[in-house]
Design a protein that fits this description.
The protein is of the alpha+beta class. The protein is built from two helices and six strands.
Length: about 100
């Protein structure tokens, strides 16, 4: 996937970034298809799917987050193609980095 930049692989996770102008659903759907694993055991076939979290930093977006007094609104949230993330990065977020 030339449109992404691989950042890290830790245990069972792959971290990558991509330009904000790209179609998020297409990028993440394609990436998930590449990490999906098909297995067969005793004649039974099944797929181990991937899942994605998205955000502008690696901490969770959580009101209980102790790292940020505002709950880290630009943090990681579970991604779903059926319920796309509607958050928009603001200039205030860039200053926090």
């Amino acid at each position: 996937m030339p449109e992404i930049q691989l950042l890290a692989q830790v245990h069972d996770a792959v971290y990558f970034q991509y330009p904000e102008g790209l179609d998020e659903t297409k990028v993440i759907t394609k990436a998930l298809s590449l990490v999906e694993i098909a297995l067969a055991e005793k004649g039974r076939q099944f797929v181990v799917p991937g899942e994605a979290k998205i955000g502008w930093n690696w901490a969770s977006a959580d009101p209980k987050c102790k790292l940020f007094s505002d709950g880290n609104p630009e943090g990681l949230v579970k991604w779903s193609a059926q319920a796309p993330d509607k958050r928009v990065r603001t200039p205030d977020m860039e200053r926090r980095l």
